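Standup notes
- DV: blocked on the single-chain target, sequence here:
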Amino acid sequence: MKIFSSLIFELIGTGKDIDFMERYTFIFILLCSAGWVGISYLAAYLSGWRRFAEVYKKDGEFDGRKHHFKSAGIGSANYGGCLIVGANNRELFLGMIFLLKLGHKDLLIPLAEVKGTEIKRLIFFKYVRLTIKGFPKDIIQIDKRTADLIERESENAWQYERVKEETNA
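- DV (later): unblocked, structure below
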């Protein structure tokens, strides 16, 4: 601790000719970095991602295409544009972009354990709610286009339950 505090004092300096920003830049960067790491780990905890990772942590390589900058609502967290999604005929890959990687281990979930149900929200938007076997309270909500992408990439090995449209016959 003594070495760290002496490093800060050395970087900050004691001269009065140094302006405020130069004096506190190091501390500002340190606090922002610590905040970013803390927020990333907190989001992983609150969303349920860490619970998923205990069971579905990726050990090997994923054999399939990955699609970056997808969005999902996972538990109480909203991952807008930070998700990496991939699928093959056996498993679903979920990962985070580099900036949120801390606390978010890549996941490989067998498709047989993923159930998808289309839900309508608002007027124009359709979403698909994913539930993972063994995690009934941890819901992943993705837009319909991402669910269609998973279906295509899995070569229809996984399909979600669609809402039946009412027809006036």
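- Follow-up: The first strand starts at residue 66 and ends at 74.
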